[in-house]
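Contributing new records

If you add data, match the layout below exactly. Sequence lines come first and carry their own label; structure lines follow with theirs. Keep one chain per record. Anything else will be rejected by the validation script.
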Amino acid sequence: MRNALAFLAGALFGGGLYLSGMTDTAKVQGWLDVFGDWDPTLAFVMGGAMIPMAIAWQVSARRAAPLAGGSFPVPPKAEVGRKLVIGSVLFGMGWGLVGLCPGPVIASLGYGDPGVWIFAAAMLAGMGAAPVLSRRLDSAVPAE
């Protein structure tokens, strides 16, 4: 049951990315080009994602456990620190330069575009390197 729900959620998410245009790099880059040929349509995608998520947070706050079992994840700390800023900058650079972020990359792999596959490989390499670099950064410069 849990795997079926995960598959259904993933299919719904991927389909939503496709229908909203989030897998179209030109559309995403058009959203980011606020001083040029700006395309504001992805604001509706973001709003359409935030509204159901806000409802889900309210519902989950009233439940003892998720419907599929297990436990709810611990909410992240609400503080802005070095790791959040560095991660946000790197994420934004990748998104702005290429027009892709992790979810749409996975959804776009089926297109067969070599650029998407190269981005996915670089993304996975970065995810693998992140813990090592984070430990080095923490040992070189103590956290605030």
